[in-house]
Amino acid sequence: MKMLMIVAREFMLDELEKLLRKNxxxxxxILKEVTGKGKAGRVREKIFHTGTNVVILAVLPxxxxxxxxGALKTFVTAxxxxxxxxxxxxxxxxxxxxxxI
Length: 101
Prior knowledge:
The chain is an alpha+beta fold and 101 residues long. It has one domain: Alpha-Beta Plaits, CATH 3.30.70.120. Helix content is 31%, strand content 35%. The chain is built from 2 helices and 6 strands. It has a 4-stranded antiparallel β-sheet with strand order 2-5-1-6, with helices on one face. Strands 3-4 form a two-stranded antiparallel sheet. The longest helix has 21 residues, at 62-82. The protein is globular, with a radius of gyration of 14 Å.
């Protein structure tokens, strides 16, 4: 099993949930209003800035991981093309995962 961790701007959440459902990913956890600092700069709380992040955690069987990664890469490419090459504010991480309880 693997855990995918998607970090994206909160305004993309509806689209990302549709993408997950379309790719048969029905179980995931969403952490909202996540702040921090990365390559795109500082993401602040809504009081100061209009765009916080969300983190989506999804544990997938190994045979489903490549399909999900491919779908997310296609999503990022389509958004970059639609915004004339501007980077899509989304990061994807994969971690090994073992269910213990």
